[in-house]
Amino acid sequence: MAEEVTNIQDKSFLNKMMRRIVFINMLCSPVFVIAYLFFGKILYKLCMYGGIKKRGTKLGLCMLFFIVYFILYIIKIKRIVFVFAN
Predict the structure, then answer these.
(1) How far is CA 73 from CA 3, 18, 20, 45, in A?
(2) Per-residue exposure over 7-40, b if at least 16 CB sit within 10 Å of its own CB, e if not
């Protein structure tokens, strides 16, 4: 009987390329870029003028956004790994 032969290296290469594509798509999304620019502006003003009471909440919200975005990235990567594993 003929057995199905798969090349492990090809699957890992495709897996790695799909992870890169997802990473670049998420990194270049307009929502992430706008949030990153907003975070940079608030951080710049904090460093220049101080005022943690005024800017601390906005910085905390930006950090929360980045953490949620990172979790979503990990979930998408796990889906890709699961698809290529089967």
Answers:
(1) 36, 12, 11, 29
(2) eeeeeeeebeebbeeeeeebeeeeebeebeeebe
pLDDT reported for residue 79: 84
Per residue in 22-76, pLDDT (tens digit) is 889 888 999 999 999 999 999 999 999 988 888 889 999 999 999 999 999 999 8
Separation CA 86–CA 83 (nearest Å):
6
